[in-house]
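Why do we care about 3D structure at all? Because function follows from shape, and shape follows, mostly, from sequence. That is the central idea of this module. The next example makes it concrete: a single protein chain, its amino acid sequence, and then its structure expressed as C-alpha coordinates.
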Amino acid sequence: MQKTALVVPCYNEERRLSAEPFMRALQDDPALTVVFVNDGSTDRTAAVLREICAGSPRLRQIDLAHNAGKAEAVRQGVLRALEMDVDQVGYWDADLATPLSELPALAAAIERPGVDLVLGSRVRLLGRSIERSRLRHYLGRLFATLASLVLRLPVYDTQCGAKLFRKTERLARVFAEPFLTRWIFDVEILARLAVQEGGPEALLGKVVEVPLSRWHDVAGSKLRPGAALLAGLELFRVAWWMRRTRPR
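And the structure:
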Protein backbone atom coordinates (compact mmCIF):
# COMPACT_ATOMS: atom_id res chain seq x y z
CA MET A 1 0.00 0.00 0.00
CA GLN A 2 1.35 3.41 -1.01
CA LYS A 3 2.02 5.80 1.88
CA THR A 4 0.63 9.31 1.47
CA ALA A 5 1.28 12.55 3.35
CA LEU A 6 -1.40 15.18 2.70
CA VAL A 7 -0.64 18.83 3.55
CA VAL A 8 -3.58 21.02 4.60
CA PRO A 9 -2.79 24.76 4.88
CA CYS A 10 -4.97 26.58 7.41
CA TYR A 11 -5.45 30.29 8.03
CA ASN A 12 -8.23 31.41 10.41
CA GLU A 13 -10.17 28.20 9.83
CA GLU A 14 -11.53 27.61 13.34
CA ARG A 15 -15.17 27.69 12.18
CA ARG A 16 -14.67 25.34 9.24
CA LEU A 17 -12.29 22.74 10.69
CA SER A 18 -13.76 19.47 11.89
CA ALA A 19 -12.02 16.29 13.01
CA GLU A 20 -14.69 13.97 11.59
CA PRO A 21 -13.80 14.03 7.84
CA PHE A 22 -10.09 13.63 8.57
CA MET A 23 -10.62 10.76 11.00
CA ARG A 24 -12.83 9.06 8.42
CA ALA A 25 -10.11 9.51 5.78
CA LEU A 26 -7.57 7.88 8.12
CA GLN A 27 -9.91 4.95 8.65
CA ASP A 28 -10.39 4.55 4.89
CA ASP A 29 -6.64 4.71 4.22
CA PRO A 30 -4.37 3.20 6.92
CA ALA A 31 -1.31 4.54 5.03
CA LEU A 32 -2.45 8.19 5.11
CA THR A 33 -0.91 10.95 7.25
CA VAL A 34 -2.32 14.49 7.32
CA VAL A 35 -0.02 17.44 8.02
CA PHE A 36 -1.88 20.61 9.01
CA VAL A 37 0.02 23.87 8.57
CA ASN A 38 -1.30 26.69 10.75
CA ASP A 39 -0.30 29.77 8.75
CA GLY A 40 0.00 32.27 11.61
CA SER A 41 -3.74 32.30 12.28
CA THR A 42 -5.11 35.04 14.53
CA ASP A 43 -8.18 33.08 15.69
CA ARG A 44 -8.38 29.72 17.52
CA THR A 45 -7.18 27.66 14.56
CA ALA A 46 -4.03 26.53 16.40
CA ALA A 47 -6.07 25.30 19.37
CA VAL A 48 -8.64 23.57 17.16
CA LEU A 49 -5.85 21.81 15.27
CA ARG A 50 -4.31 20.61 18.53
CA GLU A 51 -7.66 19.10 19.49
CA ILE A 52 -7.98 17.42 16.08
CA CYS A 53 -4.42 16.09 16.09
CA ALA A 54 -4.89 14.61 19.56
CA GLY A 55 -7.17 12.06 17.92
CA SER A 56 -4.40 10.24 16.03
CA PRO A 57 -0.59 10.21 15.66
CA ARG A 58 -1.22 10.32 11.91
CA LEU A 59 -2.60 13.85 12.27
CA ARG A 60 0.25 16.32 12.67
CA GLN A 61 0.47 20.07 13.14
CA ILE A 62 3.00 22.69 12.04
CA ASP A 63 2.66 26.26 13.35
CA LEU A 64 4.17 29.13 11.36
CA ALA A 65 5.06 32.12 13.53
CA HIS A 66 3.60 34.64 11.10
CA ASN A 67 1.06 34.58 8.27
CA ALA A 68 3.15 33.78 5.20
CA GLY A 69 0.37 33.06 2.71
CA LYS A 70 -0.98 29.81 1.29
CA ALA A 71 1.94 29.31 -1.11
CA GLU A 72 4.54 29.35 1.65
CA ALA A 73 2.35 27.34 4.02
CA VAL A 74 2.00 24.62 1.39
CA ARG A 75 5.73 24.75 0.64
CA GLN A 76 6.68 24.37 4.31
CA GLY A 77 4.22 21.52 4.72
CA VAL A 78 5.47 19.69 1.63
CA LEU A 79 9.09 20.06 2.75
CA ARG A 80 8.17 18.53 6.11
CA ALA A 81 6.20 15.74 4.40
CA LEU A 82 9.15 14.93 2.14
CA GLU A 83 11.16 14.09 5.27
CA MET A 84 8.64 11.40 6.14
CA ASP A 85 8.62 7.76 5.06
CA VAL A 86 6.02 8.18 2.33
CA ASP A 87 5.65 7.42 -1.37
CA GLN A 88 3.55 10.40 -2.36
CA VAL A 89 2.86 13.90 -1.09
CA GLY A 90 -0.09 16.16 -1.78
CA TYR A 91 -1.97 19.21 -0.60
CA TRP A 92 -5.67 19.79 -0.04
CA ASP A 93 -7.74 22.88 0.77
CA ALA A 94 -8.87 23.05 4.40
CA ASP A 95 -12.44 23.99 3.45
CA LEU A 96 -12.81 20.53 1.84
CA ALA A 97 -14.48 22.01 -1.23
CA THR A 98 -12.92 18.89 -2.71
CA PRO A 99 -14.12 16.14 -0.34
CA LEU A 100 -11.47 13.80 0.98
CA SER A 101 -13.45 11.00 -0.63
CA GLU A 102 -11.85 12.16 -3.91
CA LEU A 103 -8.35 11.25 -2.66
CA PRO A 104 -8.47 7.56 -3.74
CA ALA A 105 -9.08 8.57 -7.38
CA LEU A 106 -6.01 10.81 -7.34
CA ALA A 107 -3.99 8.13 -5.53
CA ALA A 108 -4.92 5.54 -8.17
CA ALA A 109 -3.70 7.90 -10.90
CA ILE A 110 -0.37 8.71 -9.22
CA GLU A 111 0.38 4.98 -8.99
CA ARG A 112 0.37 4.61 -12.78
CA PRO A 113 3.90 4.08 -14.18
CA GLY A 114 5.52 7.34 -15.24
CA VAL A 115 3.00 9.67 -13.55
CA ASP A 116 4.60 12.22 -11.20
CA LEU A 117 1.78 14.71 -10.59
CA VAL A 118 -2.01 14.42 -10.46
CA LEU A 119 -4.28 17.47 -10.55
CA GLY A 120 -7.85 17.36 -9.38
CA SER A 121 -9.93 19.00 -12.11
CA ARG A 122 -13.35 20.65 -11.78
CA VAL A 123 -15.06 19.54 -14.98
CA ARG A 124 -18.84 19.71 -15.16
CA LEU A 125 -19.95 16.40 -16.64
CA LEU A 126 -23.15 14.39 -16.47
CA GLY A 127 -23.12 12.20 -13.38
CA ARG A 128 -20.74 14.50 -11.48
CA SER A 129 -21.59 17.19 -8.92
CA ILE A 130 -19.49 20.31 -9.53
CA GLU A 131 -21.16 23.31 -7.88
CA ARG A 132 -19.47 26.62 -8.62
CA SER A 133 -20.82 30.15 -8.99
CA ARG A 134 -21.23 31.24 -12.59
CA LEU A 135 -18.85 34.19 -12.14
CA ARG A 136 -16.09 32.06 -10.62
CA HIS A 137 -16.59 29.42 -13.29
CA TYR A 138 -16.12 31.85 -16.19
CA LEU A 139 -13.24 33.70 -14.53
CA GLY A 140 -11.67 30.31 -13.87
CA ARG A 141 -12.06 29.27 -17.51
CA LEU A 142 -10.44 32.52 -18.67
CA PHE A 143 -7.53 32.11 -16.28
CA ALA A 144 -7.09 28.42 -17.16
CA THR A 145 -6.91 29.29 -20.86
CA LEU A 146 -4.23 31.93 -20.21
CA ALA A 147 -2.31 29.56 -17.92
CA SER A 148 -2.40 26.86 -20.59
CA LEU A 149 -0.96 29.29 -23.14
CA VAL A 150 1.81 30.42 -20.77
CA LEU A 151 2.74 26.88 -19.78
CA ARG A 152 2.27 25.51 -23.31
CA LEU A 153 0.38 22.60 -21.76
CA PRO A 154 -3.23 21.49 -22.42
CA VAL A 155 -4.16 21.85 -18.76
CA TYR A 156 -7.84 22.41 -17.88
CA ASP A 157 -7.71 23.41 -14.20
CA THR A 158 -4.55 24.54 -12.44
CA GLN A 159 -6.23 26.13 -9.41
CA CYS A 160 -8.20 23.28 -7.84
CA GLY A 161 -6.83 22.79 -4.31
CA ALA A 162 -6.33 19.03 -4.64
CA LYS A 163 -2.92 17.87 -5.87
CA LEU A 164 -0.86 14.69 -5.43
CA PHE A 165 2.85 14.23 -6.27
CA ARG A 166 5.11 11.23 -6.45
CA LYS A 167 7.93 11.71 -3.92
CA THR A 168 11.07 12.31 -5.98
CA GLU A 169 14.26 14.36 -5.86
CA ARG A 170 12.77 16.53 -8.62
CA LEU A 171 9.83 17.36 -6.37
CA ALA A 172 12.18 18.38 -3.56
CA ARG A 173 13.95 20.77 -5.95
CA VAL A 174 10.62 22.29 -7.03
CA PHE A 175 9.75 23.15 -3.43
CA ALA A 176 13.27 24.05 -2.30
CA GLU A 177 12.93 27.81 -2.90
CA PRO A 178 10.07 30.16 -1.94
CA PHE A 179 7.58 30.78 -4.73
CA LEU A 180 7.74 33.95 -6.79
CA THR A 181 3.94 34.13 -6.77
CA ARG A 182 1.40 34.29 -3.96
CA TRP A 183 -1.90 33.55 -5.70
CA ILE A 184 -0.98 31.21 -8.55
CA PHE A 185 1.78 29.07 -7.08
CA ASP A 186 -0.02 26.04 -8.58
CA VAL A 187 0.89 27.37 -12.04
CA GLU A 188 4.41 28.12 -10.86
CA ILE A 189 4.83 24.49 -9.74
CA LEU A 190 4.06 23.34 -13.28
CA ALA A 191 6.41 26.01 -14.66
CA ARG A 192 9.24 24.87 -12.38
CA LEU A 193 8.69 21.25 -13.39
CA ALA A 194 8.68 22.20 -17.08
CA VAL A 195 11.95 24.14 -16.79
CA GLN A 196 13.51 21.36 -14.74
CA GLU A 197 12.53 18.76 -17.35
CA GLY A 198 13.83 20.83 -20.26
CA GLY A 199 10.48 21.97 -21.62
CA PRO A 200 6.72 21.56 -21.17
CA GLU A 201 6.52 18.73 -23.70
CA ALA A 202 8.52 16.58 -21.26
CA LEU A 203 5.60 16.78 -18.80
CA LEU A 204 3.13 15.13 -21.14
CA GLY A 205 2.27 11.79 -19.59
CA LYS A 206 3.97 12.72 -16.30
CA VAL A 207 1.24 15.18 -15.30
CA VAL A 208 -2.39 14.07 -15.51
CA GLU A 209 -5.73 15.58 -14.55
CA VAL A 210 -8.46 13.58 -12.83
CA PRO A 211 -12.01 14.96 -13.15
CA LEU A 212 -13.53 15.19 -9.68
CA SER A 213 -16.82 13.49 -8.89
CA ARG A 214 -17.74 16.19 -6.37
CA TRP A 215 -16.68 19.78 -5.72
CA HIS A 216 -18.64 22.66 -4.25
CA ASP A 217 -18.04 26.30 -3.35
CA VAL A 218 -17.71 26.78 0.40
CA ALA A 219 -18.81 29.96 2.16
CA GLY A 220 -16.05 32.05 3.69
CA SER A 221 -13.65 32.14 0.74
CA LYS A 222 -10.62 34.36 1.40
CA LEU A 223 -10.43 35.48 -2.25
CA ARG A 224 -10.83 39.24 -2.58
CA PRO A 225 -12.28 41.20 -5.53
CA GLY A 226 -8.81 42.20 -6.71
CA ALA A 227 -7.51 38.63 -6.70
CA ALA A 228 -8.30 38.08 -10.38
CA LEU A 229 -6.19 41.10 -11.37
CA LEU A 230 -3.33 40.01 -9.11
CA ALA A 231 -3.49 36.49 -10.54
CA GLY A 232 -3.23 37.91 -14.04
CA LEU A 233 -0.19 39.98 -13.12
CA GLU A 234 1.44 36.97 -11.49
CA LEU A 235 0.80 34.92 -14.61
CA PHE A 236 2.88 37.42 -16.60
CA ARG A 237 5.60 37.04 -13.97
CA VAL A 238 5.62 33.25 -14.42
CA ALA A 239 5.77 33.69 -18.20
CA TRP A 240 8.76 36.03 -17.86
CA TRP A 241 10.50 33.64 -15.46
CA MET A 242 10.00 30.68 -17.80
CA ARG A 243 11.36 32.66 -20.76
CA ARG A 244 14.39 33.79 -18.76
CA THR A 245 15.25 30.37 -17.34
CA ARG A 246 14.38 28.01 -20.20
CA PRO A 247 17.29 26.08 -21.71
CA ARG A 248 19.04 27.83 -24.59
